[in-house]
Design a protein that fits this description.
The protein is α/β, with parallel strands linked by helices. It has two domains: about 180 residues, 3-Layer(aba) Sandwich (Rossmann fold); about 180 residues, 3-Layer(aba) Sandwich (Rossmann fold), CATH 3.40.50.720. It contains 13 helices and 15 strands. The strands form two sheets. An eight-stranded mixed β-sheet has the order 3-2-1-4-5-6-14-15, with helices on both faces. Strand 2, helix 2 and strand 3 form a beta-alpha-beta unit. Helix 5 packs parallel to helix 6.
Length: about 375
């Protein structure tokens, strides 16, 4: 199989979908790897390192998309890339289609098989590719929240951990998954008063035993959320339903009741956001105010630390890429059902139920389509 790696073009997206080590592993297994010139520079990888690994360097994204059977990316294709997406190809990347109907329709029209890194899911519910990116985003969310709480950066002028004799800042984390638990751990480590809210009481119980510091846990319901948000200095949105649009938990009225200069960081914004006043922002223009509350809603937060996030991402994706390259897509999906959860579109069909529901599109079970294509492949 020919595997292509274009350069990311999302604002300040410094990650790359394949490291030179990953390229070497694929090349040694007999795959052909094509990398766009300069694709790895943001993560500290020069073109010469990919060449030494056995990959070929192509001059532009058009060459990559036109030559590769499977394209590996970090973030979703942007409108300026739609025209060079190849009919019937495979693309493996973070997609977040529930919040991007336009991209979904492009993928369907071009019969592209789209594997969403964020919906690859093990039988126990673990998201092996998304989890490390979520943990990174959770840690960053507290760092940027603390930064913007400083008066010189537009916030109220509070230190998360404070000092003896002065109350620490109040941090409210919505969701106790990979993002939320990481955010809570960092905020507690900085000395903040942390309220962690989730629907899963058992998970909250486990985290209560694991985390140390000024931690309060609450069941997720509207009164608890409203009360916590009203007294919060920093609210972190960390809610995820794989493939689906994030539920709106914090209303405009709740935000209006916060102290002026408080900060909101919605990590779930790439899935539509769990805070009503949030909309996507970029690293170049990351913040805005609503009712005097500063909002940070960057959709690719881990891009800020590519030398950490790129290897972590490739650790998660490479085993699946190897299976697809070796056994073909159908063989890989039949061998590893977690990959089946990753498929969002397949040859003109929406095959992930949560994505179909979010976009009000027809859902087609993947199993029937694979059986049809497998029969056609081995039939007379």
């Amino acid at each position: 199989m020919v595997v292509g790696v274009p350069k990311e073009i999302k604002d300040k997206e410094f990650r790359v979908a394949l490291t030179p080590v990953g390229a070497r592993i694929l090349c040694r297994a007999g795959q052909e790897v094509l990398v766009e010139a300069g694709a790895g520079l943001g993560s500290g990888f020069a073109d010469d390192e990919y060449l030494a690994a056995g990959a070929h360097i192509l001059p532009d994204a058009t060459s990559i998309y036109g030559s590769a059977g499977m394209v590996l990316k970090v973030k979703e294709p942007l409108p300026q890339e739609y025209a060079i997406l190849q009919e019937g190809s495979i693309i493996f990347t973070f997609l977040h289609l529930a919040a991007d109907a336009e991209l979904a329709h492009v993928l369907l029209k071009k019969n592209i098989t789209a594997i969403a890194s964020e919906t690859v899911q093990l039988a126990d519910g673990h998201l092996p590719i998304l989890a490390p990116m979520s943990a990174i985003a959770g840690k960053i969310s507290v760092q940027v929240g603390a930064h913007y709480l400083e008066k010189v950066n537009g916030g109220a002028g509070k230190l998360l951990g404070s000092v003896p004799g002065v109350r620490p800042a109040e941090v409210v984390v919505l969701g106790a998954g990979a993002v939320g638990s990481s955010a809570a751990a960092v905020a507690l480590g900085m000395g903040a008063q942390v309220t962690l809210i989730d629907v899963n009481i058992e998970k909250l119980g486990v985290l209560t035993e694991v985390l140390r510091g000024n931690l309060v846990t609450l069941a997720s319901n509207e009164p608890n959320i409203a009360e916590a948000v009203q007294r919060a200095d920093l609210v972190i949105g960390a809610v995820l339903i794989p493939g689906a649009r994030a539920p709106r938990l914090v209303t405009r009225e709740m935000v209006a009741g916060m102290e002026k200069g408080s900060v909101v960081v919605d990590v779930s914004v790439d899935q539509g956001g769990c805070i009503e006043t949030c909309h996507p922002t970029s690293h170049s223009d990351p913040v805005y105010y609503v009712d005097g509350v500063l909002h940070y809603c960057v959709t690719n937060m881990p891009a800020a630390v590519p030398q950490t996030s790129t290897p972590a991402l490739v650790n998660g994706t490479l085993p699946y890429v190897q299976k697809i390259a070796t056994h073909g897509l159908i063989g890989a999906v039949l061998e590893d059902h977690s990959l089946a959860h990753g498929l969002n579109t397949y040859r003109g069909h929406v095959v992930h139920p949560a994505v179909a529901q979010a976009l009000a599109l027809e859902y087609t079970p993947l199993e029937g389509l694979l059986e049809r294509d497998l029969s056609a492949k081995i039939g007379p």
